[in-house]
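Review form for a predicted model. The reviewer records the input and the model, then writes brief findings.
Reviewer: anonymous (R2)
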Amino acid sequence: MTLALVTGAGGFVGRNLVAALRASGREVVAMVHSPRSQSDLHDAGVQVLVSDILDTDTYAAVAQRADEVYHLASVVAPRDASRAYRVNVGGTRQLAECIAAAESPGRLIYVSSLSASGPCQNDQPRRETDADDPVSIYGKSKLAAEAELLKLADRLPISIVRPPGIFGPWDRNLLAMYESIRWGINAIGISRDYRYSFVHVHDLVEGLVRVSEKGKRVRSAEDRDRDGFYFISDPDPISFVTLGNLIADSLERRKPFHLTVPSTICSGVAFCSDMASRVTGKRVYLNIDKMREARAGSWFCDVSRAENELDFRVAFDLSQRIAQTRQWYAEQGWL
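Model under review:
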């Protein structure tokens, strides 16, 4: 039986990935940072390992036995660069070195981000072969983590996935937009013309499994073809106006009033969120780092490589996925 280790298994992508891997017949070890994330993972019939990604002694044995390692653990909304680099770069390097020390290293699938690529140039979709130009601390830390993995590419099989905005079951970030649009308002703090790629978490999970089974391995930093890099996304980018209209349709509401929020107000909210996060220690989604990305332009990607090499296709279009997410929120009592 294939043994899969999932880091960051307590996050919403991790929960969905663990469930899919179990359904495929794999033995799964779910690595979580906090004991609070354990309960529903135990219910899924998986072994739960509570560990910090920087504490290799606690997970070395399973990492070196695993056939597949899906590395999701990261700092997504960093309050400062030092923590982002310590976890996203240092943690990734330590995990990869740990796997590489095995007699027969398993495959490492690193979940990076479109943020590592940077925004679109001249309104053209981002491709795997484009030069990278991240604008946020998060994006720069993910790109630096990729660079560390490329140094180890001759010691273990590695593939790198760069998803865009992710939504679906267990995601709370998009929930606020559903709640606002239910009352008829879609607050937009960026240009209405900017377009974005999105991916439903179930489609992303399917893509990750396909990468583990069919994906090429990265070669080196000098490889201009950048084999082993993949964008996994819905193929059709949309604006936040269109997204708001799709959410309204899923709620069986009229199209909302699209309220453009001045950039100064958004920046003020982001600053206050950052300060609150520093005091409480709780993660916030909108912070100064996210505002750097919001101001940078459109963020969408070309998925033709995944389609051609992995035979990847999304199972449902965005309008259907938006409706399915609304239904899941309602079933959980979140909406």
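Findings: The longest strand covers residues 27-32.
Further findings: The mean pLDDT is 90.
Recommendation: see findings above.
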